[in-house]
């Protein structure tokens, strides 16, 4: 790659020398000769030769083409150096990390081998324990089954005991009922005996009255004499009968008394039986409740034993599986132990290869250094001063990062970082990517951070607003401030501004439109946010140039925001409303949505776009005829040059111009093929 670059550079130099020699023969081409001398000296950042003021247009055009192609090559090489250098840094870090990783892997593999051997012993011991546990679990399972059988019998016995108790309870209830009936009968019997006693007393009373009557009859018979003898006999008989009746009743009373006494004893016995039954009933209830509790507990234990038996079966099954897995683990551990030694050997080989890659990376870095040294021979932009500062210089550079132009700015800033890497300088590039924080707040925080960290310089796009107070505070703290792309507010005390000529981009756009329409046609203008200075300046320059062209007319001017979807919508509506427009002129950074609108409205070949900024997609659209010209504002230089200018100013103290011009370039069909990547 380096050889090809050197050959290309030498060829360009040879061509330049030939041109220089040819130009010397023609005194009318002194300007071309002077520029050729500058190119021979490696100074490529010279203006193009004005074709209108030269006698040899073909030669001047060829000179401009060679110079521009060589400049494009050199700047593209700078961009590639940044890209390749980033890749080399990443590769170098990866190789170093990989090398350390391989060493760690080798050490780890050895440790793994040792630990694997220990693991084998542990697995073997674990297998022995699993076998022992399995045997113990089988014995426990057998014992649990025996307990289960005993509990089954206990449950059956408890169930039978409950049934017997229930039968006994029924018999006791029946016997209690019978005793109650007997007690009732005895009570009734006692009542009857009392009534018999009452009748006996009545009979004794009658007997006493008969005896008294007989006694009265005997008295009366004695008074009557012989005539009353018959009454005397009757009275005697009545006395005899009364005595017998009394004697009989006494016997009956004795018997009744004995019956009553016996009945009382039976009644007391029945009462005692009832009391005993009641006491027995409480005891029976307690026994019955105990039997039921025993039965319920036995059933619960029976269920738990069943559950435990099921769990033991699962545990036994798991133990068998665990034993199988432990055996597999043992086999796997053996295989790991065998393979670990192989891994360690392979890791050592990989570490050796990583060392070779590291050597190649160092060689690649050396090659990049050689390319950078070679590029220093060609001054396409400002170069760092050779002076050395008395202290370290710290510069902070900011840019947007939302389209291809700003990606080019970023690459320029990174290349400036590399150019100043061997000097006592610290260049910090900050891409402004508003996410959760608004852009103005993000800029304010960035500026404040530079103040807090005692930076020497701040570089920022001039259109960034909303942070004037912070910039003034930075200037008051002695920080040098420089703007680029466009000028900033007059409130900010910046020392210089690197930017294109205010109206030149718009003028170049108007020239490109005239060229496309051969000086006669209609233009549709799409103007970006007019609070951004570049949009105003491009628009004014475009209109200023077209005022002097009688055949060119602006049919409409539409405002478009910085939003791709909205740019597409407005561009499409404008094309549909103005089919007569042969050129669309766009001032902001969203050309591809406009190109898509031209395609979608079927205007390819009838309408083309004049836009700003360069990238491969835009070059492809130029080749396809959708875009007729793209004006470049040296995105790489806008990222690179302010850093070098400000560094040189801080180190040397040399005053900077208030405005430093930025180089412009146009890509159209005449030169696009040399820029399209294969």
TL;DR?
The chain is of the alpha/beta class. The protein has 13 helices and twelve strands. It is elongated and about 220 Å long.
What does this structure look like?
It is a single chain. The protein has a six-stranded parallel sheet, sandwiched between helices. Strands 7-6-8-9-10-12 form a six-stranded mixed sheet, with helices on both faces. The protein starts with a helix and ends in an 11-residue tail after the last strand. Among the domains are: 142-332, Methyl-accepting chemotaxis protein (Helix Hairpins), CATH 1.10.287.950; 504-632, Rossmann fold (3-Layer(aba) Sandwich). Helix 3 runs antiparallel to helix 4 (229-375), helix 8 (504-517) packs across helix 9 and helix 10 crosses helix 11. 69% of the residues lie in helices and 10% in strands. The model is unreliable at 374-379 (pLDDT under 50). With 678 residues, it is an alpha/beta fold. Helix 9 (533-547) links the parallel strand 6 (521-527) and strand 7. The protein has helices at residues 2-24, 30-40, 57-224, 229-375, 404-419, 439-452, 468-476, 504-517, 533-547, 564-577, 591-600, 616-624, 635-652; strands at residues 393-400, 425-432, 457-461, 480-484, 496-499, 521-527, 552-559, 583-586, 608-612, 627-632, 659-661, 665-667.
Question: SSE layout and pairings?
Answer:
Blueprint lengths: L1 H23 L5 H11 L16 H168 L4 H147 L17 E8 L3 H16 L5 E8 L6 H14 L4 E5 L6 H9 L3 E5 L11 E4 L4 H14 L3 E7 L5 H15 L4 E8 L4 H14 L5 E4 L4 H10 L7 E5 L3 H9 L2 E6 L2 H18 L6 E3 L3 E3 L11
Parallel strand pairs: 1-2, 1-3, 3-4, 4-5, 5-11, 6-7, 6-8, 8-9, 9-10
Antiparallel strand pairs: 10-12
